[in-house]
Amino acid sequence: MIKTTLFRSREYLICAIFFCLFINKPISGTSTLQAAPLPSSTRETQHRLKKLDAQIGALQQKLKQANNRREVLDKELAKTEKQISASILKQRQLQKEINDKEEKIKILQQQNHQLNQQLSTQQELLAKHVRSCYQIGEYQPLKWLLSQENPGSFSRVMSYYQYIIKSRKELIDEIETAHKQLTQTRHHLQEELSTKHQLQKQLNTQQQKLIETKKYHQSVIGALNNDIQKKQSRLKEFKRNKENLTHLLATLAKQSLRENHKPFHQMRRKMPYPVTIKPHTFKKMNQGVTFFAKEGTPVIAIYSGKVVFSNWLKGYGLLLIIDHGNGFMSLYAHNESLFKHKGEEVLQNEQIASVGHSGGIKENGLYFEIRHHGKAVSPLSWLS
User: The domain 64-234: what is its CATH number?
Assistant: First the structure.
């Protein structure tokens, strides 16, 4: 008794819907011209368009990644340019230090030259002094003193020799001092030269790093810009192709509507199954048939027409009804999702929904009916 009541309730709802749909339709004996199945060229164009959409999406994603990468590189470049600025400042400081060292080296070289001149002069004086001593008497002062007959001369000679000895000692001390100064000056000069070379090496290293950094960024950013430019060109080309394919598809659809105008009642046993699965697993129930399929399986329109109902209905779940003209309508129930809205035109073989189990049924499947002037007819007799 309960099952009978539920069935009658479902049937009452669907009949009420069909009554409302037909009550507003004008009575006409003429048949409505409908589109036949899409030609292979149209299906191929749809396939190409779908593939092109996927390519456009993938390319846009790559472009987004490339732009993100360029943004990161721009930040790195800004950081590097700041480092370059600091490096240039360091180079200027190093160059100033090098210039200072070179100036000191020039001064030390002048001092070195002066000391060499002093040393040469002192060496010449010492040589003259030694020659003078030998000229007095082969450098034998005692023998020379004993040979003097005048005592006054002896005193003068002793004073002279004391002067000579003192002068000799002073000359030797001056030569030794000059020699030490020369040695220290040379050592200092070598240290200054070593420091200069080390600073010059640091400067060259800084300059080389600067050149390498510039070349790296120029290379990476240049390659990235070229890649982005190529991708943008390809994206424009893809979009132009999509526009052309969309226009072609619209032209083919209009041509199909003009050339193929068989009414629905002449398409018995020529229309496709609403669920494209093989083998077809179905069960006759109520006034229609349920096709069992996996959740998400595409549901297609068996024939072209206009969507007159696309909503949830108690007992039928997500329901879509297509008006094919001449009183013929097809019904698709228990869908997972509806892809068409009320008032939209659909073509044969076009996906309109996906298989589900909405409306409270346990198994995934599509409940399908064909009705003529509101009365259910055997749906399988219309399918190929």
Answer: 1.10.287.1490
Q: Rounded to whole angstroms, how far apart are CA atoms 331 and 323?
A: 9
Topology of domain 2-19+264-382, CATH: Glucose Permease (Domain IIA) (2.70.70)
Tell me 31's DSSP state. Answer: P
Tens-digit pLDDT profile for residues 141-188: 555 555 555 656 656 766 776 676 677 667 777 777 877 887 787 788
The pairing of strands 365-372 and 328-338 is: antiparallel
* Displacement of CA 208 from its chain's centroid (Å): 28
DSSP secondary-structure letter at 291?
E
Q: What is the pLDDT of residues 30-71, one digit of tens each?
A: 333 333 344 446 677 778 888 888 888 888 898 888 888 888
> Is there a shared CATH topology between the 2-19+264-382 domain and the 64-234 domain?
no
What's the pLDDT score for residue 378?
A: 92
Query: Helices marked H in 24-150 — which ranges?
Result: 40-137, 141-146
Which residue matches tokens 């010492």?
126
The domain locations on the chain are: 2-19+264-382, 64-234
Mean of per-residue pLDDT scores for the chain: 78
Question: What does the block give as tokens for 298?
Answer: 């595409």
Tell me the C-alpha distance between 50 and 42, whole Å: 12
* Predicted TM-score of the model (pTM): 0.42
d(CA 47, CA 54): 11
